[in-house]
């Protein structure tokens, strides 16, 4: 008995499971148009800050400043040479504080999260609950008690004191994130390492941490951003001397009560954003997998 090609195609189409219906051309066009508009809205403020950074202060506040007229690098030169503020000193302070916060925060969060993920000990659930409660408080509420603690320790007005404050605020979130990631790593790896003669710390350092690089990248980036862009704690816990400020605090010198140097402020803002963008691109390939793993595994 012969079966023609049309019958075969019809039977195979009937047997094939139905998938989602394809979008119509109009719906696809509308979706892409909405995404383009949303992207332009998100990017335009950043683009305008870059444009203003090349303008003199007097021209920066015009209602419709031109894109190319009166543009120059004078604002960047003034900021980088110290003619307007101590930018390089602020940059050095921010790099030091952000680097120490990232290293100490990630190490502390990783060891804590590994212990919470692998070991069962009295008070484990209360410790997790305390981390969650800490995240509920606004940072402004913590300024006074943290100030008194640093004053008692003799660390008020110093960079190490500010690093400890940043670690205390970053570690709870980082611990929750890394615990979810460690929960996704099979415990058989730990057992195999112990069979090979590794100590518990050796298993953690040589086997588990290399597998947790996406989670470490997320927590490291979060710790860096907390220390790099935070203003309230840096204003309260650092010395008032101009050379002791961080970049986020130092930008305030461009906007005073009686004057505002918008062109110089925009130029300094662009320079401040560059290291954060560089760090983001360095870890971006780990961010999606790290965030997804830490958010869905408990």
UniProtKB/TrEMBL annotation:
A Gene Ontology molecular function term of the record: ABC-type maltose transporter activity
Keyword Nucleotide-binding attributed: no
Source organism per UniProt: Saccharopolyspora rhizosphaerae
Localization annotation: Cell membrane
Residues of the ABC transmembrane type-1 domain: 91-283
Protein name, as recorded: Carbohydrate ABC transporter permease
Membrane topology recorded in Swiss-Prot or TrEMBL: Multi-pass membrane protein
GO cellular component: plasma membrane
Cited InterPro entries: BP-dep_ABC_trans_perm, MetI-like, MetI-like_sf
Transmembrane domains' residue ranges: 26-51, 87-114, 126-150, 162-182, 262-283
Keywords, ordered alphabetically: Cell membrane, Membrane, Sugar transport, Transmembrane, Transmembrane helix, Transport
Superkingdom of the organism of origin: Bacteria
Similarity comment: family membership: Belongs to the binding-protein-dependent transport system permease family. MalFG subfamily.
Key word Ion transport present: no
Pfam families named in the record: BPD_transp_1 (PF00528)
GO BP term, example: maltodextrin transmembrane transport
């Amino acid at each position: 008995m012969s079966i023609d090609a049309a019958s075969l195609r019809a039977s195979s189409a009937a047997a094939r499971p139905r998938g989602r219906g394809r979008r119509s051309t109009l719906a696809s066009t509308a979706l892409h148009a909405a995404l383009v508009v949303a992207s332009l809205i998100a990017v335009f403020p950043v683009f305008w800050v870059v444009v203003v950074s090349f303008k003199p202060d007097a021209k920066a506040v015009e209602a419709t400043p031109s894109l190319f007229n009166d543009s120059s690098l004078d604002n960047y030169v003034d900021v980088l040479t110290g003619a307007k503020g101590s930018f390089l000193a602020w940059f050095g302070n921010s790099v030091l504080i952000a680097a120490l916060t990232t290293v100490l925060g990630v190490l502390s969060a990783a060891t804590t999260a590994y212990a919470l993920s692998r070991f069962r000990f009295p008070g484990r659930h209360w410790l997790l609950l305390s981390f969650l409660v800490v995240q509920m408080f606004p940072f402004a509420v913590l300024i006074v008690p943290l100030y008194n603690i640093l004053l008692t320790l003799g660390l008020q007005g110093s960079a190490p004191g500010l690093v400890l404050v940043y670690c205390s605020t970053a570690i709870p979130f980082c611990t929750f994130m890394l615990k979810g990631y460690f929960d996704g790593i099979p415990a058989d790896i730990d057992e195999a390492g112990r069979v090979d003669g590794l100590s518990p710390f050796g298993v953690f350092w040589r086997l588990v941490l290399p597998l947790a690089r996406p989670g470490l990248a997320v927590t490291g980036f979060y710790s860096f951003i907390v220390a790099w862009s935070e203003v309230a704690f840096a204003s309260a816990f650092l010395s008032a001397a101009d050379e002791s400020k961080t970049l986020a605090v130092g930008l305030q010198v461009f906007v005073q009560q009686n004057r505002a140097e918008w062109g110089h402020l925009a130029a300094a803002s662009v320079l401040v954003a560059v290291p954060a963008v560089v760090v983001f691109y360095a870890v971006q390939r780990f961010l999606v997998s790290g965030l997804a793993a830490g958010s869905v595994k408990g």
